[in-house]
Amino acid sequence: MDVDLNADLGEGGGDDAAILTCVSSANIACGWHAGDSLTMRAAIQESLRHHVSIGAHPSFPDRANFGRSPMQRDPELVYIDLLYQIGGLQSVVQTMGGQLRHVKPHGALYNQAARDPTLADAIALAVKTCSSDLKLMGLAGSELIAAAHRHGLIPIEEVFADRAYLSDGSLAPREMPGAVIEDAERALQQTLQMITQGTVTTIDGQTIPIRAESICLHGDGTHALIFARTLRHALESQGLKIRAPA
């Protein structure tokens, strides 16, 4: 069995080069929530050096709040926003001898599209317009995954090692106590449960089904690199191969 480990990179924080030795996919910031042309180029260069699959990580226009503030933005504008961001990263990747493989929305855009089919459709259409070969990464079981299917894209169903889940399969809001799992052992056990059993235990103690094709590792936490190495070792010890989606 294969599983993908992905990390959000090129955001100007954390040790991207070290994290890239642990993951199989990188989601590179396109400048609208974090990063710039220099961090983008550096992340692409390191991804190519480590043979890591490269994805675009577009956002709402919200650098002031790291892309985490909800916005009621017209889906037609979101479509154009994503064409601009994906196209820019795609061009840089190609000029450096690589190929863009997937798109993963960031922050509030990701979370809102997980619930809103109209917003999810705008994102999927933008991805398809850039290239029908691009995969769309989204929250497992969400509207983003459904939109990928509607638009003929290959979806990648993503789960989170260090985030708590609600009973509807959505992520617990960050402001909720316990939403971010700080304990590395608990995060590891949750990840192994999702991968090996296809379930996750929610913040209120329920067990729900979940499809885990890619695991997100946040690359900017205090212990991010230690946890990334520990998780990769644990998964490989279970006989799993760490590999980007084909």
State the main characteristics.
246 residues; alpha/beta; TIM Barrel; 7-stranded parallel barrel; two-stranded antiparallel sheet; 10 strands; globular
Polypeptide structure, described:
The chain is an alpha/beta fold. The chain has one domain (2-242): Glycoside hydrolase/deacetylase (TIM Barrel). It is 39% helix and 18% strand. The chain is built from 8 helices and 10 strands. The chain has a 7-stranded parallel beta barrel with strand order 1-2-3-4-5-6-9, surrounded by 6 helices. Helix 3 runs parallel beside helix 5, helix 5 (117-130) packs across helix 6 (143-150) and helix 7 (184-197) runs parallel beside helix 8.
**What class, by secondary structure content?**
alpha/beta
Distance between the termini: 13 Å
Strand line-up across the major sheet: 1-2-3-4-5-6-9
Largest sheet: 7 strands, parallel, barrel
The total count of strands amounts to 10
Radius of gyration: 17 Å
Strand content: 15-25%
Helical content stands at: 25-40%
Query: How many separate domains make up the residues?
Result: 1
Output the CATH class name.
Alpha Beta
Q: What is the string of helix and strand elements? A: EHEHEHEHHEHEHEEEHE
Can you tell me the CATH architecture? Alpha-Beta Barrel
Low-confidence spans:
none
The best one-word shape is globular
